[in-house]
Amino acid sequence: MKQNMGVADRLIRVVIAAIIAVLYFTGTISGTIGIILLILAAVFVLTSLVRFCPLYKPMGINTSKKKA
User: Which residues cross the membrane (predicted)?
Assistant: First the structure.
């Protein structure tokens, strides 16, 4: 897998995942929508760690810096 996520993209995803996790564990969001958002947060963290987003590939998006 070729990396296609830049630092800013990864940071935004981790921040969103943290916000979702806090909202879920404090009880602000719950039920089915809470579980769906928690799964989405886990996907955000996973894609940030591996620096690859499978949805970016077919769309040709690459937010990582190009090496000279």
Answer: 12-29, 35-56
Residues 6+ apart with CB under 8 A from 36: none
Q: Where are the alpha helices (DSSP H) in the chain?
A: 7-25, 31-50, 56-59
In order along its 68 residues, the chain shows pLDDT tens digits of 788 999 999 999 999 999 999 999 999 999 999 999 999 999 999 999 999 999 999 999 999 887 65
- Assigned domain for 37 exists: yes
Total count of residues recorded for the chain: 68
Domain that holds residue 35: 7-59
Supply the pTM of this predicted model.
0.86
